[in-house]
């Protein structure tokens, strides 16, 4: 799809927390080779090479909770190459699902890629007739309507019917928990049934030393469950964010732009987390590898690796400003200039 491109002299983020000065070779929208500088061919084409000296070469960010209406071109220019759109359950929800389902199949490089849809807010049985089986039937219809685009839904673990919803849809999508009012036992039970995410959970940390510690300790006792958090300082204090990264491995933490105002993007959340003292490799994993794995796309997105899609960004080593955005191997933004299709 894209022309050949070489990124040279950059500091490449490898798996884990390792950075290494290497060159990245791109062809037809994919990363074809990553090599040390001493393996660089003598005939590097100056017209298709970008000198990344003084910059990090990173995977593009993936936002798993992007408010509906955020401009996909704007997201891309701010380093988010893929996103999941959050939709509220309204009378037009089925139509919106079909529309976003079509977006997931589009191949445009001018915008961030829509990777799916999440049903915003907890699934309310009352809003679906009050019967768990009827609610499950409605959700199944929505899954079919979305043609696979519906990826995320959330439940309150103590609510009637939540257990059935988790068991019914755990193999089809990522079922998460809204845990601000949940007990430890409710959250632990829901995770045992197949819930894989805990959202809006850090407010319960105030009760962590009480007889009822809330939902968050259940994450510590349950392997492979993720915590979603928006590190915007308004909802999460910097000290709590740093503590979270000390007690959980970064691959189990997902930073999202969920609570960010319209003018902010996931890049702004990344900057805040870094300013608040979270190490760069940890933050980057939380917006690249971790969300890609939760989406089931870890074999093609979220890493700078041979065979992966060339959705990449280059950040300045010192200022962390975005220097370059590459989508499917095509330079979209470079040094302050929009260069759609190399134009």
Describe the structure.
- This protein has 343 residues and is an alpha/beta fold.
- It has 2 domains: 5-57 and 304-342, Urease, subunit C, domain 1; 61-294, Alpha-Beta Barrel (TIM Barrel), CATH 3.20.20.
- The protein has helices at 72-77, 93-105, 132-146, 162-169, 184-193, 216-220, 238-247, 266-275, 280-286, 289-294, and strands at residues 5-13, 19-27, 30-35, 49-51, 55-59, 61-67, 80-88, 113-122, 150-155, 174-178, 197-199, 226-229, 253-255, 312-316, 322-327, 330-334, 337-338.
- Strands 1, 2, 3, 4, 5, 14, 15, 16 and 17 form a 9-stranded mixed sheet that branches. It has an 8-stranded parallel sheet with strand order 6-7-8-9-10-11-12-13.
- β9, α4 (162-169) and β10 form a beta-alpha-beta unit.
- α3 packs parallel to α4 (162-169).
- The radius of gyration is 21 Å and the shape is globular.
- The two termini are 16 Å apart.
Briefly summarize what is shown:
The protein is α/β, with parallel strands linked by helices and 343 residues long. It is built from ten helices and 17 strands.
Q: How would the blueprint of this fold be written?
A:
Elements: E1 5-13, E2 19-27, E3 30-35, E4 49-51, E5 55-59, E6 61-67, H1 72-77, E7 80-88, H2 93-105, E8 113-122, H3 132-146, E9 150-155, H4 162-169, E10 174-178, H5 184-193, E11 197-199, H6 216-220, E12 226-229, H7 238-247, E13 253-255, H8 266-275, H9 280-286, H10 289-294, E14 312-316, E15 322-327, E16 330-334, E17 337-338
Parallel strand pairs: 1-4, 1-5, 6-7, 7-8, 8-9, 9-10, 10-11, 11-12, 12-13
Antiparallel strand pairs: 1-2, 2-3, 5-14, 14-15, 15-16, 16-17
Helix pairs in contact: 3-4
